[in-house]
Design brief:
By secondary structure, the chain is mainly alpha-helical. Among the domains are: 63 residues; 63 residues, no CATH class. The protein has twelve helices and two strands. The chain has a two-stranded antiparallel ribbon with strand order 1-2. Helix 1 crosses helix 3, helix 4 runs antiparallel to helix 5 and helix 5 packs antiparallel against helix 6. The longest helix is centred in the C-terminal third of the chain and has 24 residues.
């Protein structure tokens, strides 16, 4: 038995012996719990709160509020599994849903810290759409973040996570890493939005870089197409017959001949002597 639980149990036993008719009143247990919490004794306070909840004749709304406070205490004490029990109790008793703004983020945080990824995804879906049914559990449109008129969905998050380098992916597989990645995705979106608002996308230097990148990408796609062996994926060589001879060579030879044969298909004049006139 933990020291905190033992201390409260001893106090409870002494109280019962001193007052066989029922010991301390529920309100006294509440006062004790608050005092222990204020004295920096969270585990002992949790035990006192449990006794208070067992004995106090509370209505559902009042009991839900107490459960929420106890859950917060357990959460701060890093007793996340215990916090989940009280959070779900509070959720169940809170018929009007007035406490969901407090319980929902704590449930998500506790599941993250416990590494219960599947339960976390189900919880996020349920919080986003209370009418979620098992048939919709695989819907990746659940929203993880909202800012302005933008959102980040589970599908977008998982795509980003899958694209991380192995070293970063290892960190991204942890609860803290997932939170960091989500924050970074939001920050990146906001920075992009700000950059466009300031007109940086019209900067000539940026436009030139975009043109260069586009050119490089389409050439890469041409080379990739030329290196593919399947008939369906081979480029159309009707107008460029020099591409058809690339089927039996090594990859290096194919790329070399592609460049050479491409030059031979045009009437090109070179002036290499002018290179000698360049000032070093």
């Amino acid at each position: 038995m933990a020291i905190g639980a033992m201390a409260v149990a001893i106090l409870f036993q002494e109280d019962r012996e001193a007052n066989p008719t029922g010991g301390m009143a529920p309100e006294q247990w509440l006062q004790l719990a608050v005092r222990l919490e204020q004295r920096g004794l969270p585990e002992e306070a949790l035990d006192a709160y449990r006794i208070y909840l067992d004995r106090a004749p509370l209505d559902n709304a009042a009991r839900a509020r107490v459960c929420l406070n106890v859950a917060k205490l357990a959460y701060d004490a890093e007793r996340y599994a215990e916090a989940l029990v009280f959070l779900h109790q509070a959720d169940l008793l809170d018929a009007q849903g007035t406490l969901k703004g407090d319980t929902n983020p704590l449930i998500v945080g506790a599941l993250e810290r416990l590494g219960r990824t599947d339960d976390l995804r189900r919880e996020l879906r349920a919080q986003t759409d209370p009418g979620t049914t098992p048939a919709l559990e695989e819907d990746d449109s659940v929203v993880l973040a909202e800012f302005g008129d933008q959102t980040i969905t589970m599908a977008e998050f998982e795509e980003k996570l899958a694209g991380l380098p192995p070293a970063l992916r290892e960190h991204g597989d942890t609860p803290e890493g997932r939170r960091d990645l989500l924050r970074n995705m939001v920050a990146e979106r906001l920075l992009i939005e700000r950059a466009y608002r300031l007109g940086y996308d019209e900067d000539p230097a940026i436009q030139q870089q975009l043109d260069d990148m586009r050119d490089a990408l389409v050439v890469q796609r041409l080379l990739r197409s030329a290196l593919e062996d399947t008939d369906d994926d081979k480029p159309d060589t009707t107008d460029e017959p020099h591409l058809g001879m690339l089927g039996t060579q090594t990859e290096h030879e194919r790329i070399r001949d592609l460049f050479v044969n491409t030059l031979e298909t045009r009437d090109i004049r070179f002036y290499p002597e002018r290179l000698e006139e360049m000032t070093p």
